[in-house]
From TrEMBL:
Entry protein name: Class II aldolase/adducin family protein
Organism the protein comes from: Candidatus Heimdallarchaeum endolithica
InterPro entries: Aldolase_class_II_sugar_metab, Aldolase_II/adducin_N, Aldolase_II/adducin_N_sf
Domain Class II aldolase/adducin N-terminal: 31-186
Protein keywords: Lyase, Metal-binding
GO function term, MF aspect, one: aldehyde-lyase activity
Any Pfam family hit: Aldolase_II
Amino acid sequence: MSYTEEYVGVKFRHVKEGELEFDSSLNEIALQLQKALSELPPETLEGVTGNISARLSDGILISATRSKLKNLMVPQDLSKVVENTLGGDIIRYYGSKIPSSETPMHLQVYQNRPDVRFCLHLHLPNLEKLQLLNRFPITKEAYPYGTWELAREATKALGSNDFVILRDHGILAVGNNLDDIIQKIISISQI
Ligand SMILES: [Zn+2]
């Protein structure tokens, strides 16, 4: 099974606050994301791409719309969403591109989980098998991508776990250590 929901762009309201200035600390985080993605098996990054983010002191850094995780370009494929949007319905961002369509889900996780520093959402090719195994937390309802309903449902099903299946859609892996997240996805992708 592959993820086939039609992409119609972002579903949240958004305001661009300006360009994103990359200082050394932001650059270091960006390169960390890029390096982590390069360690994933290629088949986990095929087709409709997912999204990745990191918590910042004043917001989150997240892959942008129309960026490919297989070949994430720094800095142009990253946007910064500023923290005062948490819980609000307008996404305010800095960067050359609109942040990922799943930004609401990432924001919701960071708001609910102070321990989480990184979030990674992918469309794994073995999703159907993972769902049948009944071994992982899974969302009850399959809400459309990019909605606040999906964001809330994902956060609820995730609970205090570090991994959740978004029913008929993909997976979300979170944690405070990016290497742990990558290792977890590698092992799950081999099931
Ligand atoms: Zn997705």
